[in-house]
From TrEMBL:
<dbReference type="Pfam" id="PF00754">
    <property type="entry name" value="F5_F8_type_C"/>
</dbReference>
<dbReference type="InterPro" id="IPR008979">
    <property type="entry name" value="Galactose-bd-like_sf"/>
</dbReference>
<keyword id="KW-0732">Signal</keyword>
<protein>
    <recommendedName>
        <fullName>F5/8 type C domain-containing protein</fullName>
    </recommendedName>
</protein>
<feature type="compositionally biased region" description="Polar residues">
    <location>
        <begin position="45"/>
        <end position="54"/>
    </location>
</feature>
<feature type="region of interest" description="Disordered">
    <location>
        <begin position="45"/>
        <end position="71"/>
    </location>
</feature>
<feature type="signal peptide">
    <location>
        <begin position="1"/>
        <end position="19"/>
    </location>
</feature>
<dbReference type="InterPro" id="IPR000421">
    <property type="entry name" value="FA58C"/>
</dbReference>
<feature type="domain" description="F5/8 type C">
    <location>
        <begin position="25"/>
        <end position="145"/>
    </location>
</feature>
Length: 145
């Protein structure tokens, strides 16, 4: 199983009894349309920054290598990461990943990832937990694709 840590910056910081109407959280934040700028997407490493650098990690895009690829081959240990600086506080209700098709030269994808977010008030990264307090990671069954 491959594991890539997907890191989003400044995600969630609710104060007091603030309630969020999740039905209003339906708009994409800009990884497809470019609203999130290339310079706000960074990574632990890149195999070839010009061809498969973090700026190429956008969904539904086949520009250059069509994906971000870390310098080393991914392993089950979360060593490589992709970080997206959203610049302001957001509530994230879903995430989307996409593998690399590479113009039919290879189908490559992450089989699993974990989600972490930065908590500015306590100055540390936190792993995403569900409403039961269980640490969650996304895993994908690709045997039927």
């Amino acid at each position: 199983m491959f594991l890539i840590t997907l890191v989003l910056f400044h995600l969630l910081c609710l104060r007091g009894n603030t309630a969020v109407d999740r039905s209003q959280c339906i708009a994409p934040l800009g990884m497809e349309n470019g609203a999130i700028k290339d310079e706000d997407i960074t990574a632990s490493s890149s195999f070839d920054s010009g061809n498969v650098g973090p700026q190429h990690s956008r969904v539904r895009t086949e520009k250059n290598g069509g994906a971000w690829c870390p310098q080393k081959q991914a392993t089950t240990e979360p060593e490589e990461w992709l970080q997206i600086d959203l610049e302001t506080v957001h509530v994230i209700t879903s995430t989307e990943t996409q593998g690399r098709f590479g113009n039919a030269q290879g189908v490559e994808y992450a089989e699993a990832y974990v989600l972490e977010y930065w908590r500015p008030r306590i100055g540390k990264w936190m792993r995403y937990h569900n409403n039961k307090g269980e640490e969650k990671s996304a895993t994908f069954d690709v045997t039927n694709c």
